[in-house]
């Protein structure tokens, strides 16, 4: 198992003073969890984004603080400035490598469903992740979901159909649906949908006309 390493420095700036760090290309962060008191840190923004793309939220990151102390952590959460689209804060969760943890792992669709290719159906996903429990060394970046078994519109991929690596326990109900293929709309359904859309448009246009007429009457009354 490869572990990504991220450099961090101890931080004393809090509140508005942390904005100075952000202006310099740094990101305020905090570590909390097993075996450590909450610790305020600062990270290089570019390096963090690079590590996050590689590790995501379900892979271990080695956090080296001030070039010395190394903590094994998960990226628990992060905030982004909606205008600048820049990371503004990061939360890390420290972990004990000898204790099992519970987390969510992303499902990654692989293969092609015959019911889509041959029958013209549409692949639908019921969930994008599942809950697992494992030792940190067995954490997964993602879990493959092979949809090549979906040959008809009656076929359903369930949690129990997933190929789970050794050392990983799935916490979700085995019968939960993950993926299926729905048939294409019939001509009758498409006609009904078009008719419904036309009715909705007509209703909106009628409401707009009545609104305009009402406003005109109010203007006339004022005169």
Describe what you observe in this structure.
Keywords: Ribonucleoprotein, Ribosomal protein, RNA-binding, rRNA-binding. Belongs to the bacterial ribosomal protein bL25 family. CTC subfamily. Residues 214-223 have a biased composition (Acidic residues). The chain is of the alpha+beta class and 223 residues long. It has 3 domains: 4-94, Ribosomal Protein L25, Chain P; 101-182, Ribosomal protein L25, C-terminal domain (RNA Polymerase Alpha Subunit, Chain A, domain 2, Beta Complex), CATH 2.170.120; 187-223. The protein contains 4 helices and 13 strands. The chain has helices at residues 18-23, 45-55, 114-117, 187-222; strands spanning 4-10, 26-33, 36-44, 61-65, 69-81, 86-94, 101-110, 122-125, 129-134, 142-146, 156-158, 168-170, 177-182. The protein has a 6-stranded mixed β-barrel with strand order 1-3-2-6-5-4. A 4-stranded mixed beta sheet has the order 10-7-9-12, with no helix packed on it. 19% of the residues are buried.
């Amino acid at each position: 198992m490869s572990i990504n390493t991220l450099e961090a420095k101890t931080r004393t700036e809090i509140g508005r003073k942390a904005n100075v760090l952000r202006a310099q290309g740094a990101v305020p962060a905090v570590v909390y969890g097993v075996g450590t008191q909450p610790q305020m840190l600062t990270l290089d923004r570019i390096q963090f984004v690079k590590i996050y793309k590689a590790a995501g939220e379900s892979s271990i990151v080695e956090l080296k603080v001030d070039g010395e102390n190394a903590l094994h952590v998960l990226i628990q959460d992060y905030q982004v400035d909606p205008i600048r689209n820049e990371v503004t804060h990061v939360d890390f969760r420290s972990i004990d490598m000898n204790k099992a943890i519970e987390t969510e792992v992303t499902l990654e669709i692989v293969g092609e469903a015959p019911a889509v290719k041959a029958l013209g159906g549409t692949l639908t996903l019921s969930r994008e992740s599942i809950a697992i429990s494992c030792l940190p060394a067995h954490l997964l970046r993602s879990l493959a979901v092979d949809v090549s078994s979906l040959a008809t519109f009656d076929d359903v991929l369930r949690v129990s159909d997933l190929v789970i690596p050794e050392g990983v326990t799935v916490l979700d109900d085995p019968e939960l649906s993950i993926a299926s293929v729905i048939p294409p709309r019939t001509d009758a359904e498409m006609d009904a949908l078009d008719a419904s859309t036309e009715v909705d448009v007509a209703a909106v246009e009628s409401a707009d006309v009545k609104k305009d007429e009402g406003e005109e009457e109010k203007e006339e009354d004022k005169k």
